[in-house]
C-alpha cells in the first residue's frame, strides 16, 4: 500500500466519522426537542390537573358549607317547632281555662261532679240541655222541675238552680 491509498483510507474514515458525528448530533438534537415538547405537555397537564383539583376543593368546601347551613336550618326549624308547640299548648291551656270558667258560670252544668269525674269522664247528659217538657206544661214551678231533672247519685242532669 502506498501513501496515497493510506491517505484515501484516512480521509474516508474521517468522512465516515464526520457523517456519523453529524447524524448522532442531529439525532440527539431531535431527541432533545422531542423531550422538551413532552416535558411541556406534561407541565400543561399538571397545571390543568392543579386547576381541576382547586375546582374540586372549592366544590367540596361549598358542599361542607351547604351541609353546615342545612344543619343550622334544621336546628332553627326544630326551635321554631318547639316554640309553636309551646304556643299551641298555651292556647290550649287558655281554651281549657275559658271552658272551666264557662262551666263555673253556667247554671246548667254541675261543676262538682265534673271535677270529681275529670274532664274526659263527664257524662254526655250533663253537657246537653234536657229534652223534657217545659215546667209549666208539667204543672211544676221552674225550681221544682230543675230539682227533679238532676240526679244526685249519678251526677247526671242539670244542677238545681237556687234562686238568689
Notable characteristics:
single chain, 164 residues, mainly alpha, rod-shaped
Describe the structure.
- With 164 residues, the chain is mostly helical.
- Helix content is 77%, strand content 0%.
- It contains five helices and no strands.
- Mean pLDDT is 80; it is low at 122-128, 130-138 and 144-148.
Task: Give a quick summary of the entry.
This protein is mainly α and 164 residues long. The chain is built from five helices and no strands.
H/E element sequence:
HHHHH
Main β-sheet, in a few words? Answer: none
* Mean pLDDT over all positions: 80
Radius of gyration: 54 Å
Low-confidence stretches: 122-128, 130-138, 144-148
Give the termini separation.
165 Å
Shape: rod-shaped
Q: How many strand elements?
A: 0
Helix content: over 70%
Please state roughly what percent of the residues sit in beta strands, choosing from under 5%, 5-15%, 15-25%, 25-35%, 35-45% or over 45%: under 5%
Oligomerization status of the protein chains: single chain
List the helices and strands and how they pair.
Blueprint lengths: L2 H103 L5 H7 L6 H4 L7 H4 L3 H8 L15
